[in-house]
Amino acid sequence: MRDEQYIDGLVMKAQNGDVDSFSMLYDELLDPLYKFCFFRLPTKELAEDVTSEVFLKVWDKLETYNKEKGIKFTSWVFRIAQNKIIDFFRKNKDTLELKEELEIPDPHSEKSEKKLENSFLKKQLLSALEQIPKTQSEVLILKYFSQLENKEIAEIMDKSETAIRILQSRGLKAIRTQLPELEEFL
Fold this sequence. Notes:
Elements: H1 4-15, H2 19-40, H3 44-61, H4 73-92, H5 110-131, H6 134-145, H7 150-157, H8 161-178
Helix pairs in contact: 1-2, 2-3, 2-4, 2-6, 3-4, 4-7, 6-8, 7-8
């Protein structure tokens, strides 16, 4: 992600009606925001839907964002995403079922073998993330998959940077004990 000044410039232009600037903000934030949703929600389709809903809300509420209130724009967007995810689980707590994506790979394809390996690792990691406290898993997702800095994570989660570092350390330790084969990645 680009630096804060670049993002702030785009926000100001977008707030003044420049649709191209909002489109550039979308391009900057899409990947980290989608990854955050993807690792918090049960299916890829839900992650895509919630990511879209977040951008619609950001567009709708863009004029209410004020940097002078002390929160970075990216943190503001991730808080919206966090709230959308919480809303999703509140609304669906009684009917939520985890559905596995069923894919039959071509056994002769090297690409399919790699895809299967990655799918297996992802399922293991998701399972491990579900076993640790929610705040720890959220910090790890924001740090390693959405690639945010500790300062941004602290703003999103409304915690100190020290608390974020502690949550990150404890989360990594818990993941390592559950998945020692992922040691080289963590």
